[in-house]
Amino acid sequence: MNTAGYLRRIGLPSLLNAPVSAENLRALHIAHIEKVSYEALEIWLGRPTTVDPLESAERIIGGRGGYCFHLNGAFSALATALGYDMTRHVGGVQNRGGEPGITANHLVLTVRGLPSDDNPGGEWLVDLGLGDALHEPLPLVAGTYRQGPFEYVLRPSEVAPGGWRFDHDRSGSFQGMDFGLAPTDMSAFAEMHHHLCTSPTSGFVRVASIQRRDAWGVDSLRGLVLSRIGAGANSVTLSTAQDYYAALADIFLLPLDDVSAAEKEKLWRRLHDAHEVWLAGGPA
Domain coordinates of the chain in residue numbers? Predict the structure, then answer.
């Protein structure tokens, strides 16, 4: 993979030959979270994707983002290329009101062998694909953790024997996530990826959602409603295509240079029509 290009994309070219360390892992995680948005606009653009980490990495290098299979898949390839002892796991995100389970709707990453003062065991939960959750890695140790305005709990899972449960902040977009410790490869997610990209019941199909986390909160765009949780909290509806694409570029760092003017116009019409349906009381 283009490791140097990836590091340039997230603003850390100096880490190309840097030593493997907990400090550098944290720097990689934060830079990736802050510069690569959580997004699934390829679905709304009618562009099929796969869960291949190298394909995802090339798309990210080209200025786009992705959702968990893309973001964590690509980051695992980057970290492995840099020498980190990275493992992929099958997880399950529990939406609010739903049941917990290992549903394979989430790819989870752990790293080991990186002891630090706050984590002498050296194992870490690494997750770039939870949208409005982690800003930096968590020690893979049971406890309560605060990152910016959000408080998280990591505890033994009740549905994955020997695994872990991540409880999101009460203000977060989902309730929690469970994962087992068995290693897996990307083929474990192919079927669920197809479902999430095509099923009318998929949240990615129903709503064009984009999120970008920073140290003080998270910006979120659901359809045409732009909101922020944390410092500078607010909410506004983007009523024109110009405002929408300006928000993508300025807030979510998504200039969509790979999307033609005709594609942008078609996407805007789809988003606007979906927003009107939502205003009329249709499904969100």
Answer: 201-279
Angle at which helices 53-61 and 68-81 pack, to 10 degrees?
A: 90
Superfamily of domain 201-279: Arylamine N-acetyltransferase (3.30.2140.10)
Paired strand residues for 94: 176
Looking up tokens 């290329």, which residue turns up? Answer: 81
Q: What is the pLDDT along the chain (284 residues), one digit of tens a residue?
A: 899 999 999 999 999 999 999 999 999 999 999 999 999 999 999 999 999 999 999 999 999 999 999 999 999 999 999 999 999 999 999 999 999 999 999 999 999 999 999 999 999 999 999 999 999 999 999 999 999 999 999 999 999 999 999 999 999 999 999 999 999 999 999 999 999 999 999 999 999 999 999 999 999 999 999 999 998 889 999 999 999 999 999 999 999 999 999 999 999 999 999 999 988 886 66
Model-level pTM greater than 0.90?
yes
Q: Residues 121-142, buried b or exposed e (16+ Cβ, 10 A)?
A: eebbbbbbbbbbbbbbbbbbee
Residue tagged 């360390």 (tokens): 21
Q: Is 196 helix (H, G, I), strand (E, B) or coil?
A: helix
- CB-based burial label for 238 (10 Å; 0-12, 13-18, 19+): buried
- Element holding 157 (H helix, E strand): none
Nearest 10 degrees: Cα torsion 54, 73, 59, 64: -170
What letter represents residue 101's amino acid?
G
For 151, the token pair is 């408080």
